[in-house]
Write a structure and sequence with these properties.
This protein is about 35% helix and about 30% strand. It has about 300 residues and is an alpha/beta fold. The two termini are about 35 Å apart.
């Protein structure tokens, strides 16, 4: 388990991280979200041991993260951190050796991932000769070359097309299945929504929303039901708790007071003909993010 316990970090008068706490278990993917300057990168650096928290602490399986533990960590930074004049092989070899790996093992892992990412012919090419997307693949390989127990991914999909995003997602899910602890940050909420079970949203270093994604969505659920089929508006309006019924394109939008009304609406709809859709609308993570961050900046 990774445990971040009440960490605070100041830079002069600026409190970059303010009493932040969260836990991530083995085999979980955790989303650390926020706008630029929210404190995400500072938090990552504290977890990695690159910065010392002014207050609080971080432990991995009950132990403080130090040089005895960092060999089991993989970190993909948002900023491109490759040495452009080095070859792919030499770059990955350097990272692997810094993680305590043997050369033969590094090369074996590298060959496997180059094959997986369809860039095996680039092994002895210089980094500067690669496209931005392929450079991102190499940077990702440097983060996972040591099969990390803790994998930190800061904007991992930068420069990738949709096909390669799916490829990265597949690899991340494989590490999840193997029991790795994964912390993930992205400005693309649809990516976070696909596989993060838990998350926190930071604004100015403080948590404005956190918990399991399923519970967050339930709490912020829109009180709308979308139906397609032969229904009578008058009968819908007679159901206790139905506030409004509107036609939206080819669908019927039913605004309800709360979740308790869903069952009564469904009982009526189940008796109607030609029903091809009955959806209780769920807000996207992007909508929730914009709402919570907007509220915080309005204060």
């Amino acid at each position: 388990m990774l445990k971040v316990n009440n960490i605070t970090k100041k830079f002069g008068d600026l409190k970059a991280v303010d009493n932040l706490s969260f836990e991530v278990n083995e085999g979980e993917i955790f989303g650390l979200l926020g706008v630029n300057g929210a404190g995400k990168t500072t938090t990552f650096r504290i977890i990695m041991g690159l910065l010392e928290a002014d207050e609080g602490n971080v432990t991995l399986n009950g132990k403080k993260i130090d040089y005895d533990i960092t060999d089991s960590i993989g970190f993909l930074t948002e900023e491109r951190s490759l040495l452009l004049k080095m070859t792919v092989f030499d770059q990955v070899l350097l990272y692997g050796i810094l993680k305590g790996m043997e050369k033969d093992s590094i090369e074996e892992e590298l060959d496997k991932w180059l094959e997986r990412f369809n860039i095996k012919d680039y092994k002895h090419r210089k980094i500067k000769e690669l496209s931005k997307g392929n450079q991102q693949k190499i940077q990702f390989i440097t983060a996972i070359i040591n099969n990390p127990k803790l994998l930190i991914l800061d904007e991992p999909f930068t420069g990738l097309d949709p096909i390669n995003v799916e490829m990265f997602m597949g690899v991340i899910r494989e590490f999840k299945k193997k029991g790795s602890i994964i912390i993930f940050s992205s400005h693309f909420m649809e990516h976070v929504e696909l596989f993060c079970e838990k998350l926190v949203i930071l604004v100015k270093g403080q948590v404005v929303l956190g918990g399991r994604l399923s519970e967050i969505k339930k709490k912020y659920r829109k009180k709308n039901i979308i139906v397609h089929g032969d229904v009578e508006v008058d009968k819908l309006m007679k159901i206790d708790g139905v506030l409004e019924v509107n036609k939206v394109r080819n669908d019927i939008e039913i605004k309800i007071k709360d979740d308790n009304v869903v069952e009564d609406v469904f009982k009526y709809i189940s008796k109607c003909k030609n029903i091809t859709k009955f959806n209780v609308e769920e807000p996207s993570l992007n909508e929730i993010f914009v709402s919570k961050v907007g509220e915080s900046f309005d204060k």
